[in-house]
Amino acid sequence: MAALPYLLEDNARVLQAVRMRRFWLAASVYIVSIPLLGFATFVGLIAREPALVAGTAMAVVNIAFFWLLRNGYNLRFGDPSLTWLQMLTATTLLMFVAYSFDRSRGVALLMCLVILVFGVFRFKVREYIFASVVMLAGYAAVINLAMWKKPDTVDVWLEFYQWLTLACVLPLFGYIGGRVSDLRMRLRRTNDELGAALGTIQRMATHDSLTGLPNRVLFNETLEHAMSQATRHKHPVALLYMDLDRFKNINDTLGHPVGDRVLQIAARRVASAVRESDVVARLGGDEYVVLVENYRNPEDLGEVALKVISALSAPLEIDGHPLSLSVSVGICTFPADARDAPALVANADSAMYRAKELNPGGYCFYSQTKDERSVDRLELEAELRHAAEKHQLRLHYQPKIDMASGRVAGVEALLRWQHPRWGLMQPDQFIPLAEETGLIVGIGYWVVQTACHDAKSWSDAGHPPISVAVNLSARQFRQEDLAERLGSIVRASGLAMNRLELEITESMVMRDPDAAADAMRRLRAMGIRLAMDDFGTGYSSLGVLKRFPIQSLKVDRSFVRDLPHNGDDVAITRAVIAMAHSLRMDVVAEGVEHQGQFDALLKEGCDQFQGYFCKPPLTEPDLVRYLEDERRRPEVPEMMPSVV
């Protein structure tokens, strides 16, 4: 908005320049007319005195119009172009010259057509006709005045014929001129609209529609230009590549409209934290870049990164939801760390991912010796695609213990990858990649199939029937045929439907609660049990739970960790357990590692627990041995856990 007055001022200057050019065009006609007037005097068509008067009047009129336009006084008129005023003045001067001619008066009247031509700039057909009538009236007045003052110079029939000719020609000329003027105006409007459309298309092609920042296309062009300038002038260029931490949780939990507003706010905050000369762009998703030129040393880049991080971490609230943003920043410089634009972007991206791994919410400079991530990531994705068929995926099972009896009430299936080079990989080392590439869907169904097959084999071996819990991914939960495919898998395994429990996180159901409730009802109609995992870490409330057909609620380990010493965690755990029981749900506590946590949970009425206080995740053979040991073990006294 601050630029609007300057834009208006520039536009006014352009219009005034156009008016001045039109004045000079009209003045050129006067300049040509003065020698013609002198020649008419020489051949005796007009006397010397009226010719001098007419020539002087032409000069004075043009000087006056020039003064008005030059000093801007024309802007005080209703018509700043002064088209009507100039036309009436020219018509008056022409009629004076025509009256002063002693013979061949019609020759001078040819200038009427020239005067009308200037109406093309402004006049419509109606105005042209009016101007023609004014000229005809002026000529009629000239004839009558000449018949009165100097009748010897008037040939009535010739004058009448000339007037009649003008009466036929001028309106027709005016009509044609009006149509030309109208066409010209329409062409101008079309040209303006086309220019505006092209400008819009250009902006859409080069700017992000959500944030208004330059997009990847414009940024790449800007980066190439900046690097060519840097090469020519021997100065460095730096790129800051940034990605919002855990932004996917906001999208999944609060929805994309809130996520879009977060991206807009983030864009404004990043732009406000850097210099005006720095280029800020959005490459897509929650990824932004800042192109920095003319910096003194690398420490300056660290200060820029800290300013961006600080700006984004400021408190934020959208639709009543308090949010906390953080960003990880990767920094790469040219020519020290990259030789061309693609390498600069790729290396800055690599540094950003390293910041996420080592210092989330901080920044990291690119280091060539540590840049193995990109290659490793591509190799890991290719290997993950074939991990199941190569029998590299493994399921470990962590027992869930009934707190009253101390017996195994169920197990949770946890995925591992036995990588041929890197050994046993934990989920956090490959599940994010599986989610990003979509491989998680196929892997998820493999987990369900394997878990159901294992659970059926335990029953066939004579072990008590226990449930097996499987974590669903967000992408898998959104599959339209989820219920049908799961039903087919469970039926094929021979396992009872109620022995399969699906663990669903808050973020998965809160993204679209209505669709989630519908999917969960279909699963429950088949007999499959449902549990909400990591409860309390998202944005839902306990009151929302009654919308979903959930049988079990898992208290997140973050609330269990500091029990029984943290009063807030004790209060939260007590409230969760009480509310869950009022909704007829079982409560399972995760991450129980010592006796104090167990005692606090038992006191509050928790139903089951899992964690290292009982057993860590076990391989399938180890779990079978544990179940066999438990079967041979005598009844455990009430309120005692089956601990190692």
Explain this structure:
Keywords: Membrane, Transmembrane, Transmembrane helix. It holds the Pfam family GGDEF. This is Diguanylate cyclase (GGDEF)-like protein. InterPro entries: Biofilm_reg_signaling (IPR052155), EAL_dom (IPR001633), EAL_sf (IPR035919), GGDEF_dom (IPR000160), Nucleotide_cyclase (IPR029787), Rev_trsase/Diguanyl_cyclase (IPR043128). It catalyses: 3',3'-c-di-GMP + H2O = 5'-phosphoguanylyl(3'->5')guanosine + H(+). The structure is a single chain. α9 packs antiparallel against α10. This protein folds into three domains: 198 residues, no CATH class; 156 residues, 2-Layer Sandwich (Alpha-Beta Plaits), CATH 3.30.70; 255 residues, EAL domain (TIM Barrel, Alpha-Beta Barrel). The N terminus and C terminus are likely disordered. With 644 residues, it is an alpha/beta fold. A hairpin with a 3-residue loop joins β9 and β10. It is elongated. The chain is built from 23 helices and 17 strands. The two termini are 70 Å apart. It has an eight-stranded mixed β-barrel with strand order 8-9-11-12-13-14-15-16, surrounded by four helices. A five-stranded mixed beta sheet has the order 2-3-1-6-7, with helices on both faces. A two-stranded antiparallel sheet has the order 4-5.
